[in-house]
Write a structure and sequence with these properties.
114 residues, two-stranded antiparallel sheet, 38% helix, binds zinc ion
């Protein structure tokens, strides 16, 4: 007979074959752990968006491209934006009300939307 193990503590589970946890405590502990991990990821992403926004604000209105290496050194996360679209081959990104174009090496045409 196949014995299932608790998804949280790994202890063998007795009883119904579809049980995932050895106890209600393990079920709650796993759900709480998942909730904490989600909140941490959410908080980290919001922090990155806030940092991106403050960096973009410094460069707002500048037509000249800013190398991603320069932005990276400031902590800019090029993989995070609040909106994205393509215009032909151009990648248009937004960080809240700041819009910019993103290429493989730089961002450019950074502008504050009204
Ligand atoms: Zn358990």
């Amino acid at each position: 007979m196949k014995v299932n193990h608790c998804a949280f503590c790994g202890a063998p589970i007795y009883g119904r074959s579809d049980k995932k946890y050895c106890s209600i405590t393990c079920k709650d502990d796993l759900n709480n752990k998942k909730k904490r991990q989600w909140n941490t990821r959410l908080s980290e992403t919001v922090d990155k968006m806030e940092l991106n926004y403050s960096i973009l604000k410094m460069y707002c209105g500048k037509k000249k491209g800013i190398p991603l290496s320069e932005l990276d050194a400031l902590g800019f996360s090029a993989d995070i934006c609040t909106a994205f679209r393509k215009e032909g081959t151009k990648n248009i990104c937004r960080c809240f009300n700041i819009e910019y174009k993103l290429s493989k090496q730089k961002i450019y045409d950074i502008r504050l939307l009204l």
